[in-house]
């Protein structure tokens, strides 16, 4: 009798033992290690998203809605910045913090430098859109669930020094898995300096002294010298790597966007050679016809009567221009005009237009004729306006960047106000920050905007 | 070495068993007290052994037992009786009918049968016949309203076996999950769900049980009842016992059951029939001046449907016989209705059962064929079940239970962007469905209704790719969704009666399935043609050893259980999808992928090792105490923290023993306490990277959005429960009331954190959620005469939940979110509030008066998406079941209901936004149509307070701007509905043919019934066209927003049951 119980008890004991096969809770479906350059490559996949956005195009009034007009009426609604932190930034931060980077993928210093430069580029875009954002306490995972919002001025200051530091870190030797510059570190260094230059120009109203200093330092360190230095994200002709607009226009058959009347009226009268790339002639008339921005559709045939996106813009493998030589030249022209540097503003302006036409059309045949047009020729009396308007045409499709320049300079000065709604001056914070990071969120909107997380608050540099 | 010892020991016991006490034969006849008729099928068991037999057709039995044995006579519906043999050779027994089964035996955790009165916790049993009343497609749906405290949220019948979600005693998990464990004859089976929250609803896997095989279902509601299931039983257990043959009956019994029903689409949302497609009330015209329908506009804000001759979409197809023709622009009031077909549900079941002295068997075969109300949808289901039991000798019994299920379905898709979910959301009221039915022209091209506008120079359409929506028949025939599942589950076991009071059993239990899911997107429709295929395999094994000890010492009865279990799960899948289109029309294969196909392979392994013990002591059959403990070791928890103990205690007292108050037949008080726990899915404790897109041979890797946690602990639930079980007037009236409280701590949740941390969520032990409530089950027989009897059961549950605590620094948990047209809504839980608050945009209101604030254009102002509308959970759920027996007629009706709870309806919101809802053509106080121009008295009357001036304003505003751009797009407060309802779920009127008829036929019994399932919603607060009892959206644990819900199905049919 006793033996029964002994056997029973001992077999139960065997049953209930807490040692498992070591492998059982190791995830066989995901790698547990990643190389620094694979993480950087992943962060680069998010680059075109900085530009490819209907909302950005509405902010700069490049595109008007042909149907379901709504987003272009500037509704008061929140826009999330979470995906920037969760996709590119955390991957870059992981590289920056890593102590186990492998030199087989290129010098570790260069991997870290590229991660720092890209991180700075993303944060520059983020802070320009929203204002103060989590920066110093951000990207710390479980160590800080509720990062505070840092003032934009402090973010700018840190970005300048981070970019300089990154540029200084670079050693000889290329890195692997680089989607945008194919590991060319000289290009990365120029890109870092170009970022500093363009950021410095952003300070033209709020702190011109600092702007001038940073601008000159950046130019001295060496900025873009041709369109081949551009930061361009090149989509591929396959479904995994296709452009945003291909998915919208071709895959989803959406002809929801026409060129705005504002844009067509800027380009068509002067026979701008870029217009043939930017859009298609209206199907009904064969002419370029812009659609009034923010106008409620009335006929349902807007897609027939107005110019829609150009086929190069929505090609599956369309390039997305992010930071370009043209911008550098426009910045130089403006800096001369502001007395930050010496030189000939007109010459920079002409070079800028030429670089832009080369970038968009692939040739410069029509440049001289175009620049000879009195409407286009540099107007020394209204230099900033001339530069800004052409920069706006140049920045086509990167609406958010053009919108920042509009906020800074006020040009183009003929943007429309749909239903009486002015062009917004920032994006509202993600509404779930009010749940997830309540205290810091309210502190940030109190500090900057008197408690109203409105799309009409002004960011620090936008005076 | 150890194994050898065990085997030798076991062999030794077998030998001993052969030489036990001397036997003699006892015979007798069993009769019924009320009418003196003999009673066949009575179980006659030698107490404390597995030796037993069953009375034959004449009520006679014969059994070999020891002279000092005690015989136990039991039969369903009769009181159990014990007779000491005391050397007698003939023992005749008179059984008395047991109306409510006071001495009924219930199946408790691990399949242990216990006297109901000895239990210190609540369980509620449902008879098997309730699962076959009206041929429910998903057997678990039949639980709705039948058990107090069990809430079933279902899907529409159009899904053919779609999801039926079960929650016991509220939401006990912050993550909203926490479904009860399903156990069939002791074997835990998977109730997984492959459906997403939209798309085809494949339904939960628990439906693989053949309803015709169910003997009874017992619901173990609280952690005490399920304590012996440890980590897997935290959310309750549904114990299903299947039918078996009976030892001793020498004849074979054949049962045939046939159901034939028709299924009709019902509950259509009302729509307007005055205005058709367009954005404005005038037509665009072709170069020749002919007006045409605004083909590109999927809304109905267009011209009045006054019969104006216009060019319709079909008239632009040169291959259409009506090419170039004008036809009246006129209303199509039934265009949505016309799409649906009459479905059929044919179900045949045959079972054969029988046995002899030492064997029993039951074989059951089922064939179900459903053709759905949506065209080209079907479900074919087959079940085979075999239960066998063999007594090798009077000590050892071998039993096996094997079930096979196969499902083969082509299902419709639900949700707003899928299938026909767009009908009330984005559609033209002028579309003639009969024209669309011939969706393919003879040259192979397809006809659609939503096209680009014709060229304003040629008047022709050159691009016939549909714009946003396919012809619904194209969806039905070209974009098909197929799923197929083969599944085996069951067990093989040995029971060894070591001593009269000690029984040891060993079981190997298994549940394995292979699920295939295929989707196709055809050429010639919206989007990129494609094909996806997934193969999912799951094997769950349980190895179980159990010892049970039962003994009476004088006034004491002792009941003990000791056992161990190893749970081992291996789940894997391979999923592939084409990318960038297909190379060849009609060739649906991964090889046809134009770009590199997406592929995923996945493997999951999990083990839980457990040991457990339970002991129960009864005194004078009046006082009972019970304690249990279980130890679980889970492989998914960190190694240093993976072993946990879960105790439970309960007690009961039959206080009716102390009172002579006549009306009280039985009274019992019970109380219990338990701890239960749960672990987490594998691989959440260590860091890993996510594999990203491959760019030109560059493999990208990224940090996942959810931050793992190496320090995770199992979560614990503490529960208390007290209850009283009362029976009055000889069981004419019964009342079972339970109060419970469950406190779930250290919940393992994927807590949303600020995205600025670099992550979207973190796996944490966070928070505490409590539920308390009252369950009430009232049973009664209000009328009982010689040939009329009315039995009724009312079940009620009122549950209150509260999120007590989340995590330091975090006071809101986001369960879910949706974004539509850039407007967000959330289901959040806040500290100090009930679980699951709906969050969205509300009207801005004047603080003093509560009136709506209006902007300068007199349009309502709205808040941002942070307004809290309160919990989605119901206050009260229940069911009311009636059974009326009148002569040979039997009428059964099941009503279930819910009070409270709420949801957002995107369907209703969009019906208004796109100008389809009747409210968009209402007559305003000027007597004008709201769509008429403002200057002619039209417009929607809006009143409120001007935000600028603070003055009260009443004004008319343009209907389209108001409904389409403001209210129907941004103000979710308008689209919030009460989920209360009272639903007539099942009705069955049957007739049993009497013996007079039977004599001429070779049948033992015949019953013919008219059945109706889901015949009527008796009352609901939500608007017509939305069924609040069917808003379960696929795999979503909590139903909080409705969008593109499948059409309700009303089903009527005949059921024939024949026993040979």
Please give the structural blueprint.
The complex is a heterodimer of chains A (463) and B (1060).
Chain A: H1 2-15, H2 36-44, H3 47-51, H4 54-59, E1 63-65, H5 82-97, H6 108-130, E2 133-134, E3 149-150, H7 152-169, H8 185-202, H9 208-221, E4 231-234, H10 244-251, E5 257-259, H11 261-267, H12 275-278, H13 302-305, E6 319-323, H14 325-337, H15 345-361, H16 367-372, H17 383-394, H18 399-409, H19 433-436, H20 438-449
Antiparallel strand pairs in A: 1-5, 2-3, 4-6
Chain B: H1 2-17, E1 23-32, E2 43-46, E3 52-54, E4 60-66, E5 70-74, E6 81-84, E7 93-95, E8 105-107, E9 113-115, E10 123-127, E11 150-153, E12 165-168, E13 181-184, E14 187-189, E15 199-200, E16 214-220, H2 223-226, E17 237-242, E18 253-266, E19 284-285, E20 291-292, E21 309-310, E22 327-328, H3 335-339, E23 343-356, E24 359-371, E25 378-391, E26 396-410, E27 413-414, H4 433-437, H5 472-478, E28 481-499, E29 502-521, E30 530-553, E31 556-582, E32 593-619, E33 623-634, E34 643-654, E35 664-678, E36 690-695, E37 698-702, E38 706-707, E39 715-728, E40 733-752, E41 761-784, E42 788-805, E43 812-820, E44 823-830, E45 837-840, E46 853-854, E47 867-871, E48 874-886, E49 889-900, E50 902-905, H6 906-913, E51 940-946, E52 952-957, H7 959-970, E53 976-978, E54 981-992, H8 995-998, E55 1005-1020, E56 1041-1042, E57 1048-1059
Parallel strand pairs in B: 1-7, 13-17, 38-41, 46-51, 50-56
Antiparallel strand pairs in B: 1-4, 2-3, 2-5, 5-6, 8-9, 10-16, 11-12, 13-14, 15-27, 16-17, 18-23, 18-57, 19-20, 21-22, 23-24, 24-25, 25-26, 26-28, 28-29, 29-30, 30-31, 31-32, 32-33, 33-34, 34-35, 35-39, 36-37, 39-40, 40-41, 41-42, 42-48, 43-44, 44-45, 45-47, 48-49, 49-54, 50-53, 51-52, 54-55, 55-57
Helix pairs in contact in B: 6-7
Question: Please, could you describe this protein's structure?
Answer:
The complex is a heterodimer of chains A (about 475) and B (about 1050). Chain A contains 20 helices and 6 strands. In chain A, the strands form 3 sheets. Chain A has a two-stranded antiparallel ribbon. Helix content of chain A is about 50%, strand content about 5%. Chain A has about 475 residues and is mainly alpha-helical. Chain A is globular, with a radius of gyration of 26 Å. Chain A has helices at about 1-15, 35-45, 45-50, 55-60, 80-95, 110-130, 150-170, 185-200, 210-220, 245-250, 260-265, 275-280, 300-305, 325-335, 345-360, 365-370, 385-395, 400-410, 435, 440-450, and strands at about 65, 135, 150, 230-235, 255-260, 320-325. Chain A has a domain at about 55-240 and about 315-450: Alpha Horseshoe (Serine Threonine Protein Phosphatase 5, Tetratricopeptide repeat). In chain A, helix 7 (about 150-170) runs antiparallel to helix 8 and helix 17 (about 385-395) runs antiparallel to helix 18. In chain B, strand 30 and strand 31 form a beta hairpin. In chain B, helix 6 (about 905-915) runs antiparallel to helix 7 (about 960-970). Chain B is built from 8 helices and 57 strands. Chain B has a 22-stranded antiparallel β-barrel. A 5-stranded mixed β-sheet of chain B has the order 10-16-17-13-14. Chain B has about 1050 residues and is mostly beta strands. Among the domains of chain B are: about 25-100, Sandwich (Immunoglobulin-like); about 110-250, Beta Complex (Ferric Hydroxamate Uptake Protein, Chain A, domain 1), CATH 2.170.130.10; about 275-330 and about 430-465, no CATH class. Chains A and B meet through helix 1, helix 2, helix 5, strand 2 and helix 13 of A and helix 1, strand 31, strand 32, strand 36 and strand 37 of B.
